[in-house]
Amino acid sequence: MRELLISDIHEKLEKLLQIEEHLFPQADRVVFLGDWFDSHPKRDHAIVAKLCDWLKKNIENPRYTFLFGNHD
């Protein structure tokens, strides 16, 4: 079984989408280690909303395991 571990997204949606496109198809299981968000004061709320949409769309995918980080 090929597992892919992803950590510390910190609202970097474009990087996540690149990883999703290139590496997710090769993995049997993808484990997200948390830190989806960050608390910086100049956050881009549009990116946060898009990241939340991505999470809602994928939260029930049986190939994915979602964990919380210290920023979540």
Describe this structure in words.
There is one protein chain. This protein is globular. The longest helix has 14 residues, at 45-58. By secondary structure, it is of the alpha/beta class. It has helices spanning 13-22, 45-58; strands spanning 3-6, 29-32, 64-66. Helices cover 33% and strands 15% of the residues. It has a 3-stranded parallel beta sheet, with no helix packed on it.
Helical coverage, percent range: 25-40%
Q: Indicate the proportion of strand residues.
A: 15-25%
Main sheet strand line-up: 1-2-3
Low-confidence stretches: none
How much is the average pLDDT? 93
User: What shape does the CA trace take?
Assistant: globular
Compute the number of strand runs: 3
Biggest sheet statistics: 3 strands, parallel
Q: Radius of gyration, Cα only, in angstroms?
A: 12 Å
In sequence order, what are the helices and strands, one letter per element?
EHEHE
* SS content category: alpha/beta
